[in-house]
Amino acid sequence: MLGTVATLTASQTYTGLGALPHFNPDDDRDPLHPEVAALREAIKAADAILICTPEYAGGLPGSFKNLLDWTVGGGEIYGKPVAWINASSIAAPTGGRDAHDTLRKVLTYAGAKIVDEACARIPVSRADVADGQVADPDLRGRIAMAVRLLRDGV
């Protein structure tokens, strides 16, 4: 999830991950691919960015790393408050730690302002999700707390 956090109820979720072209530094120039331009505009318009990504094979999924690569050259993420929550299951060997380490490295390189207090490991099992929503009230409360901490870090 990549979106704005202006209040706890107003957010925009970025849904164009699958339409992004493969990153190539030679293509990181005007005119940008329309989906890259839309991604950068969404980041520019955001008050803050909350990321939720699973860990895959000990790191970030390749498609999400591709998205991050497109964020570096434009500078829109520079100084932007950013946090993440995990999307790994209780059984995941590292609980998302390796993906978070990679996120920290890339986002620091891009100049994002990481709001550490809002970065949270909240293991969610498949049984905790119904119709695409986290159903457990305790988990929902922990996620809401991370969002509030990110909002307060703006």
Automatic annotation (TrEMBL):
Q: Which domain of life is it from?
A: Bacteria
Task: Enumerate the spans annotated as NADPH-dependent FMN reductase-like domain.
Answer: 19-117
One Gene Ontology term of the molecular function aspect: oxidoreductase activity
Which InterPro entries does the record match to this protein? Flavoprotein-like_sf (IPR029039), FMN_Rdtase-like_dom (IPR005025), NAD(P)H-dep_reductase (IPR050712)
> Which GO cellular component does the record give, naming just one?
cytosol
Q: Which PANTHER family match?
A: CHROMATE REDUCTASE, NAD(P)H-DEPENDENT FMN REDUCTASE LOT6
What is the name listed in the Swiss-Prot or TrEMBL entry for this protein?
Answer: NAD(P)H-dependent oxidoreductase
The record lists the organism as Amycolatopsis eburnea
